Every structure is written in C-alpha cells, then in structure tokens.
Amino acid sequence: MNTAAIKAIYLNEMSRFFRTIGQSFISPVISTSLYFVVFGAAIGSRIQEVEGVPYGAFIVPGLIMLSVIMQSISNASFGIYFPKFIGTVFEVLSAPVNFMEITLGYVGAAATKSLFIGLVILGTASLFVDLTIEHPFAMVAFLILTCLSFALMGFIVGIWAKNFEQLQLVPLLIVTPLVFLGGSFYSVTMLPPFWQTVTHFNPVLYLISGFRWAFFGVADVPVGISLGAIAIFFLVCLTTVWWIFRTGWRIRD
Amino acid sequence: MTAILKIRDLEKTYDGGFQALKGVTLDIEEGEILALLGPNGAGKTTLISTVCGITVPTGGSATVSGHDVQRDYRKARAEIGLVPQEINLEPFSIVENNLHLSRGLFGKRRDPATVERVLKQLSLWDKRKNRVHELSGGMKRRVLIAKALVHEPRVLFLDEPTAGVDVALRKDMWETVAQLKADGVTIILTTHYIEEAEAMADRVAVIRKGEILMVEPTSELMRRLGRKELRIDLREPLSEVPQALSEYELELAEDGLALTYSYDTQADRTGIAGLMRALSDNGIILKDIQTRQSSLEDIFVDLVSEEEESA
Ligand SMILES: Nc1ncnc2c1ncn2[C@@H]1O[C@H](COP(=O)(O)OP(=O)(O)OP(=O)(O)O)[C@@H](O)[C@H]1O
Ligand SMILES: [Mg+2]
Question: Ligand 1 centre and the CA of B102: distance in Å?
C-alpha cells in the first residue's frame, strides 16, 4: 500500500479547500439559516409536529443530508474532473499507485469536505431549534457512510463527464429530485398511498429515514433496511470504480 | 552495457482504430541519452505514454530494470520520471507544494532537503513560494522537470523539453541534461530541434508513422549518412562550369563566383585532390575554400523523403 501517495493526493485536494475555508464555512451557514426562516418559520407555524417531533427539528436531518449529498457529489466529481481537464491527471496515472490509493485520496478528501459542511449545518441548526440526538454514534456512522458513498458516486461522475455540462447534469437531473422526493422535509406517511409506494423506490428515502431515526428514534422504514441500502449503494459505487480502473474507461486511452 | 529499458514489438491502436505504434522495438542503455526524432504525429508521445502507464498498449511489452510496465507497474513506474509535452500544472498551486506532491505520489517520504536541491538545480529556488500561474513558460517547464526529478528516477523521459524555450534557456536545459547524465540518469528525449539531438544525444532513434526507421549512435549516423560540401570561392566569375570538370557534378553559384562540390566522407576517395588539380589545369584561380558537414536535419529530411519515394 502506497500510503504516502494517498496522503499526498488527500492533502493536495484539501489544500484547495483550505484556501477557501471562509467560503466553505459561510455558505452552509447562510443557506441553513434561510431554510429555517422559510421552512421553519413560514411552514412550521402551520405544521406543529411531525410524528411527535417539532417541525423545525424534524427537517434538520433532511437538511443535512441534502447538503451533504450534493456537496459530496460536486466535490468529488470536480476533484477528478479538474485534473483530467487541465491535464495534471497524467502524474497520477504514471505514478506507482493502484485504484484503491487514488480513490482513497480523492474520495477521502471530498468526503471530508462534505462531512465538515454537514457538521457546520448541524451546528447552525442547533442555534435555531432544540436538538437532542438519541443515537449519536449511529448519526455519525450514517453521516460518514453517506459522505463516502456519494463522494464515490461523484468520483464516477467526474470520470464519466466529458465536459462541464455533463458534470452538472447528474446532480441536477437525478440527485436533486431524489433528495427532494426522499422525505427531506416531510414524512412519507404524509403522502397519498400511491406516492408512498413510488417513494419506496427512491434510495435516498432510506438514507434520510435512517439518519432521522438516529436523531429522534422515529423512521419511515426500519433502520436495518436503511443501513443495508446504503451499504449496497456503497458497494455498487466501489465496484464501478474498480472496474473503471481495471479497464481504463475514460481515464487511460 | 545493459539495457535499462527494453521495448519489444510495442503496439498501440487508439479507440478510433488509428494505429499510432506499429511494433516498436528499442533498447535503451543505462546512462545514455537517446533522442527520439520524428515529425509531428510520428508516435513519440504515444511511445512515452505507453511506457509510463498513461495509455494502455494493445500489443508487445516494455520493461524497466526488468519490471514489466503492466504486470509489475509499481516497480517499473517507481524508476521513471516523466516530463510531458504539454505544460500540465495546476495554475493556483504553489511551486514547492508541487514537488512535495510528486514525491508523495511516488511513495517517498516528505523531504525538504531533496526538494531544495532539485529546485536549486533548476534555478527555481527563488520561485518556490510562487503560484504556478505567476511563472513564465520556461519556468513552468522547469517546474515539470523538477517534479519528475524529485522522486529520484533512474530513467527520465523528456517530451520536447525545449519547446517554447528561448535560446539562452535552451542552452541551460542542455547543461541540465548533461548534468543529469553525469548523475547517472538515463534520458530519453523527443525533439524537433535537430541541433538538440546532435548536441545532447549519444544515440538517435528516428521514428515515423509509428515505426522506428533507424537507431544509430549520433556520431555514426553523422558519419554514415553525413555528406560534406566543399565550397570553392573564385577570384573571377564563371559563366558556366567547364566541360572538363563535368565528372565532379559541381554546382555554380548564381553570381558565378563559387563552386560547390558534394562528397561522401565515407568513400575511399573523396575526389578532392583530383578536383583541385583539374581546377588549376583549367586556369581557375581559387580565392577561398570551406567545408560544411550536413546536419542531422538534412539527414533527417533525406531519410524521410527517401521513405516517401519508396512508399
Ligand atoms: N488519444 C488519442 N486518440 C486517438 N489518436 C491519438 C491520440 N493521441 C494521439 N493520437 C494519434 O496518434 C498519432 C501519434 O501521436 P503522438 O502524439 O504520439 O505524436 P508525436 O510524435 O508525439 O507528435 P508531436 O511531435 O506533434 O508531438 C497521431 O496521428 C495522433 O493523432
Ligand atoms: Mg508529442
């Protein structure tokens, strides 16, 4: 294992993040505050509680998941697309590293960034609402697994993308709807039966449900299924990355 | 001498079906400088990329110090430093961080002393804290070389190291290369500047359309293919070359004041003595004479056009 290489890639990726740490901190704080003004105050004044949880607190896990998923994908996809675009990827390709090391470096850095943002949102949210976390370890585990899985997915998107439009396409066309329709801001039980059934095909639902369970002990689906779903998603992404590096698809001519 | 890099029947057909390498076989001796000479699109960069792991060969093999570049890629790549043709650098990165990154990628521990030595060797020490986009083109190219050297490779690929570099810097580059050779680094460089191959390389490999046309020691190549020209300046202009001198196939300058005689340096008899005698027999008075050796450029142009004629 070339751990020096993992560290080198990781630190190089993180250095870009640290260069703009102010922005990275400020923007989730602002957007979270806005969500609380709009959803918490405007809608929350009409919906008192969902499944026994005050609405303001109820949306926190969904809010964190929404940002963490989007950030993981965009960080990781940009992280690998950028060196491909400007040509610096040659160095990684000609270095004595295997796919695991490259992936750990890039995906690890992207996941770290989104984890940081998730925690900033959690911190900001706790200024607005009273939060008690019932299963803190499960909460952290869900958060880290989500960061890693979606960073892996973003990594694949970044390798697949041939231009900037494609880079935006997947998050915009696929992930945003899945996240919004995954019960970020409502409980699935609030939907008509037909849409409840449809929603159960949305993988993000299982994530948000599990994450919410870690906070409040209430869930749309059993927590074991949530964990299973994210583990499967993680493995599918990992296998895809392994296949990409084995065949050189879109990275080696 | 032992070959540090062995390339055997290496083939590369790109996805579109274009065959850029048609079975290249080449041995590179430890410690030598080999110049890869060829026109645009000959396959020089493809050859380097295939050895370095940037592209995947579709046939044949290559080994570095006995390690196969595909099966045993970790050991093979650890020996190689690569300076690409394009200036591929992160514009906002800091020069010295670039070098730390390269060392790390090659599994070497962080070592400020080595980074300092390499930066000084390439006259980049003053710029170590600068961002890449603040450097001139020539400096950026040297950052690329520094990155390739900082992990202490035994084989260095330089893909057109002096493209876009001014004359003074080019001479500097030649010196740097000579110094690297003295340090025992094996160097494979590609270039369009023939003088560069002539000045630096121990051997020259000529590549065209994915095939190696010839590999020769630079001096041998010069001797074997090198023709010399003898230029004779005359005191009085001639209107035409006298009939008696026709066997020498002389060329008369437009102003009639010079004759040029081409001869083969390898031939048993150059014919110079006979020509001199014939000139004085015909009452032609010499003012000055000079000889000129044809450069690799001429040789190269000859070689390629010969190929084209026979094709
Ligand atoms: N990624 C690619 N896909 C398809 N064809 C390619 C690719 N890269 C190079 N080629 C083709 O392979 C041939 C050899 O290209 P290569 O870059 O190796 O030439 P070169 O000798 O380095 O030329 P130059 O002196 O211009 O740098 C060219 O015809 C080129 O168009
Ligand atoms: Mg080239």
Answer: 26
